[in-house]
Amino acid sequence: MLSFFILAALASTSLAVKPIHSHNDYTRAVPLWDALNLSIMSVEADVWWVDSQLYVSLVFFAVFSVAHTSGAINKAITLDGLYLEPILGIINGTVSSITPISVENPLQLLIDFKSDGPTTYQPVLDALQTLRTGGHLTTYANGVLTQGAVTAVGTGNTPLASVVAAEPRDLFFDADILQLYSTKPGVGLEWGPEIAPLASVDYASVSSTAEMQQLVLNAHDFGIRSRFWDTAATVSTWDNFWSAGSDWVNADDLLAVSNAWAAFQS
């Protein structure tokens, strides 16, 4: 069960401007900024721990390559330079942004561990130190979940055991939405936003619209937001997710999804 303090923290948090997640954000013409310029407050970066540095995957040729392999690493591009430095600047007001990043308008930063999870975990924690020092990270400590300007969520090879063991905790976990009722995050623990503010799954694993709708409700029962990836890129598909109350629509064409959201609201 969620504690009173967690429920209070959730109630006081503003929802994202748009229920849209910038999938593989690092592949965009201008990573981070393409999303923020459309008031999209959830972005995703694949990271590799290579030669004592956290690199962000980047495709060499958008048509022929994918950004999920170590061969796509551009060693001039780091997690810090591409995301963390500009995010900190926006929060502090030293970098101008159409869309602010603040406790009232928080950014979800999804960090997809592509290299070995346990090996990559501490470097990711270390990389978040500047945001941590400024008090800008959503944090769980002493039974209280406190919303920050940035909620960092590990996915991919992120080690759940390390996330659960962290005290205080400011790097969270992307749970499997199919297993919220069938698994536990640890002995004597229940799923909740203090461990996993997000629960996701490949939509190919979902049998029907009715199951998707039930999975959204299941996640919300735990105070967790929902996301489905590898979905058809059509307006009817996006509308279907929004009608079900799914919190994040996984998007590659940000402008098209933003326009669809505006039409859906009207």
From TrEMBL:
It comes from the Eukaryota. One of its GO terms (biological process) is lipid metabolic process. One of its GO terms (molecular function) is phosphoric diester hydrolase activity. Keywords: Signal. PANTHER family: ALTERED INHERITANCE OF MITOCHONDRIA PROTEIN 6 (PTHR31571). Belongs to the AIM6 family. This is Altered inheritance of mitochondria protein 6. It comes from Mycena maculata. The lineage of its organism: Eukaryota, Fungi, Dikarya, Basidiomycota, Agaricomycotina.
